[in-house]
């Protein structure tokens, strides 16, 4: 089929349907169970499209995720008959971790963004431009503190490029959700492997080698070890840079916008202008230096990689803590080996 025919087909779908759906069910549900599944899929799709963050298509909550695993009868494979294909087909390595997240986070009442569990968040007051008409729905997850009016408004004059008369723009003080503590999909490895290794080696050094050492050695070892634990916490429990959903890219100059090629973008036609690109997985625009993480199922700003030892993705907001953690791992490991071996070599002989 030619590109022209594809464009006509997409245009026809856009004219006759509200929105195209990747989970659209062709046949009408005939049983109660099928109707229930259809409603769940529609709610899942609606939550994905209306999400505040640029995340992939997942169950809306961890309780829904746990329910989907229970309905399938297994945490990793869709059915018992497919267990024989375990070593013949590629299995998602994070499947078991997602099941543990669903099992634990559904009990804790943690929020969900992609495959990341939000443990704590808060609201902060920020000032944003408000040029929309009153009563129009706000974008980017902003929520008005008082419905029907703004808490703070002010006007400013800005002159256009063509020297036209200045126009008035308003600013509004609104509430914005801010993530405080969030863990990635591999948090079981962080809690049950990485931290126990650090605590185990540090406890052995503290018990066997630190007593009797000079005070400056004890203080230096304690400071470096505590900083290692802190840097790991700031890496694994902080926001790595989850991108907010952008349904439209930031404005660019008219010439560049006209020359940008148009293509099908999710549920609509659009173009890619400037330094922003469209992500089909998250149904959002993203900067060039950000990427969609298939493990965390979110777009991370300045994405570097997903580290299973820290349990999460490494991006813009936790890169500094991650680099500090990697450096301190080697420093503390060398120091602990030196203290343990020096104590063993310096011990008096029994002969």
Write the layout of secondary structure elements.
Blueprint: H1 3-16, H2 32-49, H3 62-72, H4 95-108, E1 111-113, E2 116-130, E3 153-158, E4 167-183, H5 187-208, H6 215-236, H7 254-259, E5 262-265, E6 268-271, E7 276-279, E8 284-287, E9 291-293, E10 298-300, E11 305-307, E12 312-314, H8 319-345
Antiparallel strand pairs: 1-2, 2-4, 3-4, 5-6, 7-8, 9-10, 11-12
Helix pairs in contact: 3-4, 5-8, 6-8
Give structural notes.
The N and C termini lie far apart (89 Å). The protein is α+β, with helices and mostly antiparallel strands. The protein has 8 helices and 12 strands. The strands form 5 sheets. Strands 1-2-4-3 form a 4-stranded antiparallel sheet. A two-stranded antiparallel sheet has the order 5-6. It is globular and about 75 Å long. Helix 3 packs across helix 4 and helix 5 runs parallel beside helix 8. The N terminus is likely disordered. The longest helix is centred in the last third of the chain and has 27 residues.
- Shape descriptor reads globular
Largest sheet properties: 4 strands, antiparallel
Q: Name the strands of the widest sheet in spatial order.
A: 1-2-4-3
Name the structural class. Answer: alpha+beta
**Average of the residue pLDDT scores:** 75
What labels describe this entry?
351 residues, alpha+beta, single chain, two-stranded antiparallel sheet, four-stranded antiparallel β-sheet, 12 strands, 8 helices
